[in-house]
Amino acid sequence: MRSVDGLDIAKNLEKQGVSRRDFLKFCTVMATAMGLPLGMGAKIAEAVTTLKRPPVLWLSAQECTGCTETLLRSSHPTLEKLILELISLDYHETLNAGSGHQAEESRLKSMRENKGKYILVVDGSIPVKDGGIYCKIGGKTALSLLEEMASQAAAVIAIGSCASWGGMPSSSPNPTGATSAQEVLKMKAIKTPVVNIPGCPPNQYNFLSTVLYFLTLKRLPELDENGRPKFAYGRLIHENCERRPHFDAGRFAMEFGDDGHRKGYCLYKLGCKGPETYNNCPAQLFGDVGAGAWPVGTGHPCFGCSEKGVGFTIPLHSPARLKFITPPANFPGIAEERGKGVTVAAVAVVAGVAGAALGAAAVTAKNLGKKDEGQADTETKER
Amino acid sequence: MSKRIVIDPITRIEGHLRIDCEVDGGKVVNAWSSGQMWRGIEVILKGRDPRDAWLFVQRF
């Protein structure tokens, strides 16, 4: 690997306990997340190790820092190190070492040196009411800063729902005129391309994948009509939800803590907005802690945080507007009534066959010389 | 004669903070801190289902 900006990225990563193998694995995972062929992993690795680290400027407007936190709190073993090694984060209000005019200088210097080449990340909505006075940084309004920084950027990535479509601050009556980055650029006739990564907070892998896609292929990923990457926002949450079979079978939790809720039934009747929200939460999950780590997985209805006109707009416990399927008014019972007329002999035959099958399975397990602990447990309980 | 120092933005914290300091003869004689961003969450909350409140206010 070549040495870039006076530092060999591979060596540097190794020093921090990230092997070349782990690094390639990370790149392949990212390629898969974007729906790219497997070979692209190597290309991504090549792009990030042989090119000059791309300068990234991060503009925070009306935000809660949740988007930054989600990126930093990532427990992927190497991620926060990688993101700091892969890109050159020249300006970020929460992460900058210097304050005041030092922070301003760092922003202006990078803008001068990397004119037309840097990636501008925006988090938070931009207040446009009353001349934009509701958010100021260094004495300048977020509105004027976005105009200044976006017009010279290679691309704008709007991270979070606020920057993507206005988010929580834009909720009625929208006291500050909170507006998305895309809308502001349109108003100011700035042609820089914008990618939206909505979510409150969004999944950091959707953001990172977009950055890596741009670095590797020098273009933005395919976007939908709302400017969202299709690889992440192409399907409804409802379509990938692990509780979907319960929806189809008419098994619903009717209130928090009831029998259906404890059994993990569908949360549609508690107001789940999965049927009208496009995101990959059920597949991508959050926090790298394994299965079930997303709102519905923990037993709470999705509130549509990433979807304009749903999150922060429709009350949490109002039922979702179904996009494709309307459930019938009545469902057949879950436990069907048993028919009569089965003879004792027939029952005995069935029981005998089942017993033989169980016996055969036990013999097979014995022959294999293995009996896993889970199996042994169930057997003991049954007896 | 007193001198006014403005530090804006204050970095490494959450949110947009500005500090104004008045220094006279090497001593701080007066200081102000001000949040530079407002979203009007209190205004947004009015008239909503109380069960929705946490959604909005936890995004401080």
Keywords, separated by commas or semicolons:
A: 383 residues, alpha/beta, Rossmann fold, Cytochrome-c3 Hydrogenase, Chain A, domain 2, 17 helices, disordered N terminus, disordered C terminus, B: 60 residues, alpha+beta, 17% helix, 37% strand, elongated
Task: Write structural notes for this entry.
- The complex is a heterodimer of chains A (383) and B (60).
- Chain A is α/β, with parallel strands linked by helices and 383 residues long.
- Chain A has three domains: 53-231, Rossmann fold (3-Layer(aba) Sandwich); 235-324, Irregular (Cytochrome-c3 Hydrogenase, Chain A, domain 2); 326-383, no CATH class.
- Chain A contains 17 helices and nine strands.
- A five-stranded parallel β-sheet of chain A has the order 2-1-3-7-9, sandwiched between helices. A two-stranded antiparallel ribbon of chain A has the order 4-8. A two-stranded antiparallel ribbon of chain A has the order 5-6.
- In chain A, a hairpin with a 2-residue loop joins strand 5 (136-137) and strand 6 (140-141).
- The longest helix of chain A has 24 residues, at 344-367.
- Chain A starts with 8 loop residues before the first helix and ends with a helix.
- Mean pLDDT of chain A is 84; it is low at 1-6 and 367-383.
- The model of chain B has no long low-confidence stretch (mean pLDDT 94).
- Chains A and B meet through strand 5 of A and helix 1 of B.
